[in-house]
Amino acid sequence: MERAWWKEAIGYEIYPKSFKDTNGDGIGDLKGIMEKLPYLKELGIDFLWICPFYRSPMHDNGYDVADYYAIDPQFGDMEDMDALLEKAKAMGIRVIIDMVLNHTSYQHKWFQEALKDPQSKYREYYIFKESRERPSNARSCFGGSVWEPVEEGMWYYHTFDRSQPDLNWECPALRTEIYKILNYWLDKGVSGFRMDAITYIKKGASLRDAEPQGEDGLHDVADIGLNQPGIGEFLLEMRRECLDGRDAMTVAEAPGVPYEQLDEYIGEDGYFSMVFDFSYADIDLAPGGNWYNQADWSFGELKRLIFRSQESVQQQGWGAVYLENHDQSRSLNKYFRDKAAAAGDLRTRFLQSTALGTLLFGLRGTVFLYQGEELGMRNCPFASCQELDDVNSLDQYRRAIEAGCTEAEAMKFVNDRSRDNSRTPFPWTGEKNAGFSEHRPWLKVNPDYEENNAEKQQKETDSILHYYQKLIRLRKENKESLVYGRIEENEMGEETVISFFRRPEEGPDIAVYVNLGDQSCLVQAEKGRCLCGNYGEARWEKEKLVLRPYEAVMVEM
Ligand code: GLC
Ligand code: CA
Fold it and tell me: Which of the two ends of the chain, N or C, has the fewest CB atoms closer than 10 A to its terminal CB?
């Protein structure tokens, strides 16, 4: 197994708007990230993935870029960015940034020029189509058609919001611009990129009509717009032009890539260092992309999805593992559903969060934590749409109502799935606005911040935060097994127990046992040295290991 810094490193995703505000406008900023580097260092983080901070009208919180070379004033300026990169480097923390290359903001000067003048060379940069009728019936990810009319008989294409027109990768001049952007940031000192929505860049089936899927006569673009034949040529060219010969990593948001094709994406000479797999992150959603259509799933199915993902990736290359990100609800609520710790129940919260953490840090692949996950943050109760910000959540609310849900039902589905759940301001302290800002924050603070915040967990030695620190330490001390070792499922009869071995080429194996259920059980297990456990020492009864509710242990054999 070839070694690389990014295989051993622990990543931490930062949503800059919600991390730390330093100038009192209620919005997190780059100086705020800089201020909190010591916190991240103490946690044991090796690299940050910073979500978009480029100039943007913020219809999709920066995933609508108006200028790839400028910092949005609400986050600071280029000097702040340079200072952040420098300080992080001095502390041994690398930075990777989010690259949104499937689309820009409609405010990007390329799009504005293209709109102004049909003869402009920038028309070629986007997907304009002349047609009397709507050119196809694909439904955009945030609702409505992917086609937006601009003038009589002229349309442009957008996979996401109408404020996010898709780029036309078929245009060589556009590709040259994209490579220039990537090289600019690499030269500035970033260590790589998270590639946003990258499997959408090649258009194919979504340009033609498809079988209507619902009342609106549309067909979900996620079914017909992803990973289209020919995408590899673009991705390989991008790698050649920007990444080959550099010590940088790339992690692609890559839904729509079947496991059989993973080799092209992450194999030797693959397009990327690793990809994010959505199979178990989206376990709670039924196909079709509507949040009101929740899937009924079991821990058995979760296990199957996790191991299928782990084994496929292991055969082909390297993976990225995560339980949370800025598009997901909090893992505590997702995986424990109505059993998720209620406000005030700190003991259950500790057990559930550390059970998930032990699972995550046991898996094979580069671990990505999302801000607040290390504190066991829960979903935020949003009372109404007025409290929401996310375009996707507002659209999903509308869709639920259209499908016949009552307002209360629609709000429940949105509360379960809203991307705003993970975007609430980081709870630094129990003080006003959770110590995030002097000013009223741009998005509601999770109301449980007095009982659950970073300062409190730093002080309490048996906190979730300290447990995560320990998991990170363990992963580093046991690199041969926990990073480079093979993973092998340890099949056992218990539905609620996820168990596996990490087997290094040399040295002792590590066994991981995680009970996601709220009942105790006894499992067959070889005795060994307990490396960590959320109940303290592991408890054996004769030849069996006792797993109490939400108990998780790692054992060196
Ligand atoms: C990705 C991002 C998401 C964004 C979308 C459009 O899925 O993670 O936050 O809304 O792309 O750029
Ligand atoms: Ca600010």
Answer: N
State the distance from the centre of ligand 2 to the C-alpha of 20, rounded, in angstroms.
7
Residue-level pLDDT at 288:
80
pLDDT tens, residue by residue, 317-355? 999 999 999 999 999 999 999 999 999 999 999 999 999
Check residue 469 and give left, alpha or beta (phi > 0: left; psi -120 to 50: alpha): alpha
Rounded to an integer, what distance in angstroms lies between the CA atom of residue 263 and that of residue 82? 36
pLDDT at 542: 87
Is it the case that residue 287 has pLDDT exceeding 90? no
Q: Quote the crossing angle between the two packed helices 391-402 and 407-417, to the nearest 10°.
A: 140
Determine contact, residues 440/433, Cβ cutoff 8 Å: yes
Q: Are 449 and 513 in the same domain?
A: no
Residue 214: band (very low, low, confident or very high) from pLDDT cuts 50, 70, 90: confident
Give which of 368, 280, 278 is closest to 320, Cα–Cα.
368
Tell me: pLDDT of 264 over 90.
Answer: yes
**DSSP state, residue 211:** -
Residues 194 and 315 both lie in one domain: yes
Q: What is the pLDDT of residue 289?
A: 82
Cβ atoms of 289 and 327 closer than 8 Å: no
- Classify each residue of 202-240 as buried b or exposed e, where b means 16 or more C-beta atoms within 10 Å of its C-beta: bbebbbebbeebeeeebbbbbbbbbbbeebeebbebbee
Write down the residue that tokens 């946003």 correspond to.
Answer: 196
In a domain, 109, yes or no: no
Name 183's Cβ contacts closer than 8 Å, sequence gap at least 6: 241, 242
- Are 235 and 354 members of one domain? yes
From ligand 1's centre to the CA of 370, what distance in Å? 15
d(CA 113, CA 95): 33
State the pLDDT at residue 105.
98
Rounded to whole angstroms, the Cα distance separating 22 from 321 reads 31
Instruction: Tell me what the mean pLDDT of segment 530-549 comes to.
Output: 95
* Pocket (CB within 6 angstroms of ligand 1): 60, 63, 100, 160, 196-197, 253, 326-327
Tokens of 449: 């911040």
Note down the domain range covering 210. 9-103+190-382+426-471
Say yes or no: 271 and 250 in one domain. Answer: yes
Q: What is the mean pLDDT of the chain?
A: 97
pTM of the model: 0.98
- pLDDT (tens digit, 9 = 90+) per residue, 426-453? 999 999 999 999 999 999 999 999 999 9
Q: Is the pLDDT of residue 215 over 90?
A: no
Q: CA 498, CA 356: separation in Å to the nearest integer?
A: 10
| Integer Cα distance of 534 and 532 in angstroms | 7
Pocket test of ligand 1: the residue of 51, 63, 201 to mutate, having most ligand atoms within 8 Å of its CB, is: 63
